[in-house]
């Protein structure tokens, strides 16, 4: 006898009318673990439905997510029909284990488990015509190949695939419920995603089975897939990444307003912004998988890094012009001092008041513009001093012009970059 007394009592308590229990019990024993026969060489139709109780714990680095759901299955076993007007409920685990159940499995699940607290979470009802309604609660960790090219403006398509493990489609045909095949808890709230849709579909395909060392068979298997379409919420990444990096770029522009000669201040500011931007970028990449392609946020960080680097490069150019200006300013002063020394030496050698007068006349010439007749060396020294002074003013003016141009050019370029970036990644066509 396959049933002990406790199982029979449990099943009797689950039946609305106990009179039909004995023949039903015998039929279960007679057809234990055998798939029901649909007749006329037709496959047994097993209909499936889901109710997603929870969804979450998306792990980008592992490319997995968790779901807790109720799984509903229905098929017809004509050997279990009865005369009761009400459904017969089976809630004994031992009886369930002795009945045939669809051998369904989740193809892309890394782990799966049934719930057993406080008792095994399942229910089974047998209708008058032998139609069985079976439900159970399952928790899955499902693999999802994330496409992060548009991260963090990405839309992800995750799937839950289910199919029969041993029965080909001509023996057991697995289909979705015709109405409301997939439902989900409206209170599901994901911290990073918004649910766009969860829709049923089919993934029927040809698979190998009965694999042996030298042979195998190929046939059609029925496969169901639940497509979960998610849109990532960008709010968190805006606050944690986009705003700080944008502010760092803006802070780097402060160097354009600092005095051109304040080299330590401008160097410190430029390198501090570069270091801060690099630190933020490394922190973000730590929480993402190391994929072989560039993500949207990588292009953003690259653009910000380019702007900060260009501000540092601008300082290098300005500093080069300022050093040229200082060098020519020193050469101009040196030429004037050399000229003065020559005049004094000439006055001493000629020993007269005439040369002293020449010196006085030269000084008055610089003040009131009198035309004097001087020695060729004096004219050359004065022209050289004026030449260096002009170069000094020219280089200083060029440095100032670059600073002034960058004060408005960098913000304008950054605005254009933002318009192009956000227009591309936020376009509805993507």
Automatic annotation (TrEMBL):
InterPro entries: GABAA/Glycine_rcpt (IPR006028), Neur_chan_lig-bd (IPR006202), Neur_chan_lig-bd_sf (IPR036734), Neur_channel (IPR006201), Neuro-gated_channel_TM_sf (IPR036719), Neuro_actylchol_rec (IPR038050), Neurotrans-gated_channel_TM (IPR006029), Neurotransmitter_ion_chnl_CS (IPR018000)
Domain called Neurotransmitter-gated ion-channel transmembrane: residue spans: 242-331
Ranges that cross the membrane: 241-258, 267-287, 299-322, 405-424
SUPFAM superfamilies documented for this protein: Neurotransmitter-gated ion-channel transmembrane pore, Nicotinic receptor ligand binding domain-like
Cell location: Cell membrane; Membrane
Signal peptide: 1-18
Neurotransmitter-gated ion-channel ligand-binding domain boundaries: 35-233
GO molecular function annotations of the record: extracellular ligand-gated monoatomic ion channel activity; transmembrane signaling receptor activity
Topology of the protein relative to the lipid bilayer: Multi-pass membrane protein
Statement: the UniProt record of this protein carries the keyword Ion transport: yes
GO cellular component annotations of the record: plasma membrane
Keyword entries, A-Z: Cell membrane, Ion channel, Ion transport, Membrane, Signal, Transmembrane, Transmembrane helix, Transport
Pfam families xref list: Neur_chan_LBD, Neur_chan_memb
Family: Belongs to the ligand-gated ion channel (TC 1.A.9) family.
The protein's name: Uncharacterized protein
Higher taxonomy: Eukaryota, Metazoa, Ecdysozoa, Nematoda, Chromadorea
């Amino acid at each position: 006898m396959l049933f002990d007394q406790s199982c029979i009592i449990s099943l009797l308590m689950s039946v609305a009318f106990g009179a039909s229990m004995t023949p039903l019990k015998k039929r279960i024993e007679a057809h234990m673990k055998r798939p029901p026969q649909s007749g006329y060489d037709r496959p047994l139709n097993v209909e499936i439905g889901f109710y997603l109780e929870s969804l979450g714990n998306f792990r980008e680095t592992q490319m997995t997510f968790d779901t807790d759901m109720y799984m509903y299955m229905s098929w017809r076993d004509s050997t279990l029909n009865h005369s009761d007007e009400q459904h017969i409920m089976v809630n004994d685990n031992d009886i369930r284990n002795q009945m045939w159940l669809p051998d369904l499995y989740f193809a892309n699940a890394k782990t799966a488990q049934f719930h057993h607290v406080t008792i095994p979470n399942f229910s089974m009802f047998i209708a008058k015509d032998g139609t069985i309604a079976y439900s159970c609660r399952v928790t899955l960790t499902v693999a999802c190949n994330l496409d992060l090219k548009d991260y963090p403006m990405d839309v992800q398509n995750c799937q839950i695939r289910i199919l029969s493990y041993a029965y080909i489609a001509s023996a057991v045909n697995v289909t979705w419920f015709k109405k409301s095949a997939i439902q989900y808890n409206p209170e599901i709230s994901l911290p990073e995603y918004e649910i766009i849709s969860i829709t049923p579909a089919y993934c029927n395909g040809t698979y190998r089975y009965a694999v042996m060392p030298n042979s195998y068979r190929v046939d059609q298997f029925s496969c169901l897939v639940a497509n979960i379409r998610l849109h990532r919420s960008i709010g968190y990444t805006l606050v944690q990444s986009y705003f700080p990096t944008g502010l760092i770029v803006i802070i780097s522009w402060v160097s354009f307003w600092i005095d051109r000669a304040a080299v330590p201040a401008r160097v410190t500011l430029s390198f501090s912004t570069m270091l801060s931007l690099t630190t933020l970028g490394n922190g973000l990449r730590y929480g993402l998988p190391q994929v072989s392609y560039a993500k949207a946020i990588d292009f953003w960080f690259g653009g910000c890094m380019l702007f900060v680097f260009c501000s540092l490069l601008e300082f290098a150019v300005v500093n080069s012009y300022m050093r040229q200006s200082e060098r020519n300013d020193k050469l101009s002063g040196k030429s004037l001092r050399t000229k003065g020394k020559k005049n004094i030496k000439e006055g001493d050698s000629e020993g007269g008041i005439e040369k002293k007068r020449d010196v006085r006349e030269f000084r008055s010439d610089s003040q009131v513009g009198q035309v004097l007749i001087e020695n060729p060396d004096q004219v050359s020294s004065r022209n050289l001093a004026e030449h260096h002074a002009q170069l000094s003013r020219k280089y200083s003016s060029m440095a100032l012009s670059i600073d002034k141009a960058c004060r408005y050019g960098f913000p304008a370029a950054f605005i254009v970059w933002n318009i192009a970036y956000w227009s591309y990644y936020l376009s509805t066509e993507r």
